[in-house]
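Notes from hallway chat w/ T.B., transcribed later so I don't forget. T.B. wanted the structure written out for a chain they're using in a teaching module, and asked if we could keep both sequence and structure tokens in one place. Agreed to drop them here.
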Amino acid sequence: KQLTEAKQELSEQKERLSKKRNKLESTGLQAQEDINHLNSERGQIESQIPGELIQQYERIASARNRIALAEARDQSCQACHVRLRPQLFNELKTNQKIITCESCNRILYYVAS
């Protein structure tokens, strides 16, 4: 009797494991499709950006743990939390040129509230 119960429990666990495996495989395939789509979209966007800006981005990203952008909020860089000079922060708000943090060298962006 115990043997049949154990066999039944084993078959139920195998079935649950099989369902989980199938779900994980489908999730993995969907994630890979998303990655491929985003990579192609990135390639299209990169073709519109000047090469020297892409090189600057890649150089910063390789030096800063693949994080090359930082938001500037409340007159400080949100990546390194160093306060920005008022003139630099005002220039950043105009969005006329690429500005980097003087401390961590990440490219700063400003989101108007």
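Follow-up for T.B.: The first strand starts at residue 69 and ends at 73. Might be a good example for the class.
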